[in-house]
Every structure is written in structure tokens, then in C-alpha cells.
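Researcher: I'd like a structural prediction for the single chain below. Treat it as a standalone chain; there are no partners to consider.
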Amino acid sequence: MMLFPRKMVSQSLRIPSFLAVRGMSLAAGEISPKVEKIVNPSKPDSGDSVRQMSAILRTVSKTRHCEKLRRAGRVPGVLHGKNELGKLSSTMVHVDLKDLNKEMRGLGMCLENTPFELSITDEADGSTSKHMVTARQLTLNPLTESPTNVNWIKFEPGCRMRIPINYINEDACTDLKRGCFLLRVNHFVEVICTDYKTMPKYITIDLSNAKKGTVLSVPHMMFPDRIRPSNRVPQGFVAAVIKNK
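Model: Treating it as a single chain, here is the predicted structure.
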């Protein structure tokens, strides 16, 4: 049996390695786009296309019936909003668990501020109605983290929406690189949205000029056109603070 020097073996088995963290990759060699996409996943896009969700009308509201739906892979919920006569109404529906899980994985914190075109089918007569909605009151199983209930709200101009707060240019903040950290106080801010097409995925705060002790609040937020903070946002609203360790 032929023996190789330890030094030769170690060199022959050496493979390119890389260190990757979210938003940054340090590579000894070129990283394939497939690996880069897995390690540093992109954020949800802000395309103009409206996401689709199919639902089926239900007429029974009993707990046992809802449990039966869950065992069959359905998620019960209620559609709230105004009907054709302008009066508030509630419609009981259920959606597919796989479809909802797919949207949850893709959207994350942006699920409740993403517009959906909800198509409701009445199995009794085969009719279908479509509504522009947003998800609300998503309930998860505490053990499996699987959705057990989700409600839907019809979108109306001027409605209030809770938008996640996103921070950019953290690597350009000198104090953050010197050992300070970003203490997040609120993860969402309530805004008034007049058009579902202009509904943002995030409200962005630029950390380029932030320093130790900076309190990030509403004046630091970059609001898109036709989006403004809700009147219910307090004057002392704090999104985050640059703190020293």
C-alpha cells in the first residue's frame, strides 16, 4: 500500500471555502449563483402583479366543522368588508393550507400588507366573486407553527396598514462597525394607503448618517408617494435606537 506524505494529502483534499452571512459573502473562489441565492436570499419583490388566492365559501361556523376543514388541509377564516349596498358584512371562507404556506414563506413579515385578489367560489351554484383584500389576524399552531385561521379585509382607499420597518446601509454606519448595535423598539409602523398598487413592502430607514445614541423615528423614515403615517402613530414613536454595548 502506497503512503503519501501528510502535507501532500492535505493539499490534495483542500477545497475552496467561503464565509457567507446575510447580505455579504466572502469567497476564496467564485460562488455559483445557485449557492449565493440560497445563502443570501433576496427580499420579496415589489412587482406590479397582484397575488392570487382562491377560497371556497362556507356556511357552517361551528368549531367541529372548522376542525374538519383543518384536517382536510384547509384554513378557515372570515372576509370582512362592505357589500354592494355599502353595508358592513362578513363572509365565511376557507383557503388551501399549501397555498397559504407558500405565501407565508415568500412574504414573511410582509404578508399582512400585501394585496391579494381573493376569488371566492360558491360550491352550491358554482358562482365566483373576486375581491381585493389583505390578510389579517393570522393564527398559528403553537407547536407546529402551521396556520389554523386567517381573516381577510377588503381593501378600501384610505385604510390603515401596518408596514414592516426595514433598515439599509448598516455597513455605512461608522458607530455600528465600531461595536454599537441597533436596538429595535417597533417592527411595524401604521400608515394610510390610498391605492393598493402603491402599497410598499417596507418603510425604509437609512442608517448611513446614524450615530451612537441616535433615536430613529418617523422623520427618519422614507415614505413612498401617496403613503403617509397614520394619525394614530404617537409623536414619541420610536423605531430603533443606536446603542453602545
